[in-house]
Amino acid sequence: MRFSLSNLPAFFIASFLLLFMTGVMLFSMSKDSLTFDELAHIPAGYSYLTLQDYRLNPEHPPLAKDIAAFPLLFLDLKFPVQSEWWRQNSQNPAWWVQFNLGNEFLYHSGNNPKDIIFWSRFPMILLTLALGALLFIYARRLGGNFFGIAALILFSFSPSILAHGRLVTTDIGAAFGALFAIFSWLNFLKHPSASRMAWAGVALGIAMLLKFTIILLIPFFALLTLLYVLLMFPSHKLRRLGAYLLWSAGAGLICFLFVIWPVYQFHIWNYPAERQLRDTIGDLQPGGITFYENAFAISLADKPFVRPFAQYFRGVFMATQRGQFGNTVVFQEQIKAGGFSSYFPVVYLAKEPLALHALSLIGLAGILWSIKKKLYQGWKNGLITWSKRNFTILALLIFIVSYWLLAISGNLNIGVRHLLVIFPLIYLVILAGIQKLLLYLPHGQRARRVIIALIILFLAGYALVSLAAYPFYLSYYNPLGGGIQNGYRVAVDSNYDWGQDFYRLLDFVQKNNISALHLDYFGGEDPAYWLGEKYIRYNPCKEVASNATPAGQRQCDPPLEKGWLAISTNQLMGGIAKPVSGFDQPTGYYNWLLKYEPIARAGNSLFIFFLP
């Protein structure tokens, strides 16, 4: 049901929400230090724009990093092109090289790291605002002004959006790309024309330049097109399907030839072909994907016209490998190499505000009720009628479910941020369900008034929870997850501790006149740069390689006996978590610390101990 709210007040409220969101992100990020992945993404983006050389960070597409690096072009920065980490003369470049080079660029090349961090994050905030504006526009089209405002409230007060919308990563870009591409494709399906086909192809290309998992849109759009033809043109299926296939092929050509190819060509302009071939072989030979896929990317890597496609698919296959092999993950105080099938459902339930989950239940009830209302025609006819009248919502549901299944089946468990791509779609589905529920409840009925009151209450509670979490959005957990103080017991990494509280640790060291600090830190900052001689690296289980000990093995040092010790919760949980069967790395090396209570925290993620 569309409530009456004229356009001018709606746009005023939307503008206020986006402006408020801007202030929250700017002020909250001013105290947040460099996070782990930013150490690789920032120098990679700067090297793309200044050197047109794509040797760094090929496992992520370039567009988000380009956007972040653009303001850096106006700073007088020095890039370490003579560094051994840039030259990478080994046959198999190590994954850590990009982080080592990032450290050298930010902290050891005469640049101001805080200027670099601020100005590279600022465009990401603008991208987040663009996503919010796009969500408001599409929501208004679906359900009117109130619908648009409600969607923007869910977006602008989301702790996860506020946390990651300020950082130089690909996750917010992926959400923008998915929303833009899906609605462009739906518009093309409903009103096919050459211009809409071209626009859909451009939107798809932009989305695929923002994150590699967006390649899932290709089979999704194929399924969506087939479903649309079957539902909307039952008597002329083959003719209509043939026409749509031709249109879709045109959109695909525009996507790859006129968006992806020129962007990648720019980025490899000064990347030597022989170097690209060598690096591609080094990155893909150990892969878990099929030999034929590896051979495809490798065979194109030094061919003049198709080198951009080789670089693109090199990244796709690297991302696929990463998803297959996963990582070492600490989840619910257990540690495992690979993924937990319950990871994303639990983290989503624990990280998102309870008010959102309550609204989700109301929205789901509304969708199921609207389907039930059509079943008087029989199951088949009822579902067909509902699908025809609610094709956009059906499309969003299909993509959301598909993406959830992909996330759950993968082994890469490093944060709820990997679900951000579907957050705007979830908001739209929730509100569409609520709108349908209200549509079927008569005016003046008590149940309708109660539901409206609950919706207003939940939206207000949602906003208040977000305000209360300021500025610790990255560490936010709802009460079921233990709250901001104890959420680390559910999951760490980018869910809780990504290195964002390091500046708060510096403040503690200064205020307490600490002359020596043992530190086990997880994040993007260089502690030695900021702490100097006060910094004593404490790594209780470090990798060693000698004639007696093979590379990759770990050697554990004895417990610290006295002095100041600060530990990132990511490192602490890795040292006390219980190993899942088959995990063969040392564990329990921080159990000795459990008898001590931290005397303070830097922010939420860095525990500070004093051992007398």
From TrEMBL:
Keywords: Cell membrane, Glycosyltransferase, Membrane, Transferase, Transmembrane, Transmembrane helix. GO terms for molecular function: pentosyltransferase activity. The chain crosses the membrane at residues 6-27, 118-139, 145-162, 198-231, 243-264, 354-371, 391-412, 418-439, 451-473. Residues 121-261 form the Glycosyltransferase RgtA/B/C/D-like domain. One of its GO terms (cellular component) is plasma membrane. It is a multi-pass membrane protein. Its main location: membrane. GO terms for biological process: lipopolysaccharide biosynthetic process. InterPro entries: LipidA_mod_glycosyltrf_83, RgtA/B/C-like. Pfam families: PMT_2. It is found in: Cell membrane. PANTHER family: MANNOSYLTRANSFERASE YKCB-RELATED, MEMBRANE PROTEIN. This is Glycosyltransferase RgtA/B/C/D-like domain-containing protein. It comes from Candidatus Wildermuthbacteria bacterium RIFCSPHIGHO2_02_FULL_45_25.
